[in-house]
Automatic annotation (TrEMBL):
Record-linked Pfam families: ArsC
InterPro entries given in the database record: Arsenate_reductase-like, Thioredoxin-like_sf
Recorded name of the encoding gene: arsC
Highest taxon, organism lineage: Bacteria
Family the entry assigns: Belongs to the ArsC family.
Lineage, broadest ranks: Bacteria, Bacillati, Actinomycetota, Actinomycetes, Micrococcales
Annotated protein name in UniProt: Arsenate reductase (Glutaredoxin)
Amino acid sequence: MSTTTILHNPNCTTSRSALETAEDLGADVEIRRYLKDPLTEAELRDLIAILEDPVEDLVRRDPLFVQLGLDHDDVADAEAVIATLLREPRLLQRPVLIRDGRAIIGRPKDRVRPFLAG
């Protein structure tokens, strides 16, 4: 089985749940704490190229999004998403799972097990 990279925030219950699921399955995972080690522009481009979800879903629309004065234009396309996430990595949706040229956002939680098992 190949290694799955999980873009992880330990303060997020959904992200912690993904790690628990990986452990339950005995999946080989590499954990990247993206707040301590933010993705570069090239890494974001690579991620978007293999993401099975809409690119705008990579950006959390939480109170920070509103506080920063962001709106639809800040997530309208891949270039806008990249610019937004480079400015504010805390807005990256989590967890993101990457393996074998595929990537998904691990929300809802029930998406994680099939991705890790498949």
